[in-house]
Amino acid sequence: MMGAGVVTSARVTHDGACVDDIADASPESQSAAVATLLTRPEIEEAFVLSTCNRVEAYVVAPDAAVGQAALEDVFEVVDDDAVYWADHDESLRHLLRVAAGLESVVVGEDQIIGQVRRAYEDARRSGGIGPMLETAVTKAIHVGERARTETAINEGIVSLGSAATALAADDIDGGLEGTTALVVGAGEMGRLAARSLDDAGANEVIVANRTVSHADHVVSELAADGDAVGLEAIDTIVSRAEVVVAATGSIDPVLEAGHLDADDREQVVVDLGQPRDVCPTAASLPSVTVYDLDDLESVTERTREQRADAAADVEAIIDEEFVLLLDQYKRTRADEVIAAMYESAERVKQREVETAISRLEANQGGELTDGQREIVESMADALVSQLLAPPTKSLREAAAEDDWGTINTALQLFDPEFGPESPVSALESESKSKPESESESVSSFGAVDDD
Questions:
Q1: Which domains does the chain have, with CATH numbers?
Q2: Is 52 a catalytic residue?
């Protein structure tokens, strides 16, 4: 059952926080963060999305105050000004925008939808996905897919890797044609950066990674000459590159100032790591220009302007799907209460039917025929259906009008768990309270036969 919970969320993102704030907020893993949230009192569901540009956490709790209290514990290490809080409706709409790419550094970038899928799987394995977040996250993935198939939101620069390439190309006279590039990291971001550098005309792309076989796989996908090396080889190869893009998952910097201070050769270094892959002191070297995630704004702003029309189309999709999402919650909530109501009524009906049949059989001195039983049960079914039709209609109307007070009251009145505490049959109580002659008047019903 979906329950009466509400979604509350908190986030630290590139939109209002710096690289270091995001690094401070980043959990050990998405799964671990979900597991931690589920230990908080009254948290029913949890979902955490952690990327190089955002850390977002969503919880389902009985009310927003409970949800916020749990999230405050998770984000306590981050400066208050860097954390953005959202209530139920805003959280849901924001999640749709994230999956659609409208909240990304590079508007419309494709990686985010895969990252949402992985976060969903991580949360599911940790027990954080229940009915409410299942509906919300799968809806967000659906919106992300629609945005990319029905609009031009992901044409052109579609990743931070391609944005890094564009930034480096702006800084080098003549662009990247004929250059040597070094990519540190062979994960998704490194792979995209290598492809983008290849497409931009780099003559050679070297990929350095802790696991060389992974780097070799990235190189094999490129048209340019390439080489795959281990991270320990950075000392000897970094001086060959005019462009360096660092995108690893390392906790500590993998590029120090000493790696880059080999000679007076001009180098452009783009640090896509979160936390930083390049030691901040490298920026002080006279021959080295270092850019980090905060510096990509110039490229991403151009992309945002170019995709303004497509973004408007995506907003229209989000508006449509957001209404459908809220309607889905309303229908589900109303259907749960209606099902509980009918379940409760069914238990009462069965109890009263069995009592009535027992009394009829006692009065006529033998078992009722199948036809007689069917008449009794049909009458009871008809009574239940007619009596519950008006409240069923009212509950559906209450859901459509956001009258959750009526919905929750009805859920309490018709709680399926009420069964074990149900009173004895009303017919039994009535029989015990009436004189014997009066109770025997029911015996006339026993004359009913198959005709």
A1: 6-156 (3.30.460.30), 160-299 (3.40.50.720), 341-447 (no CATH)
A2: yes
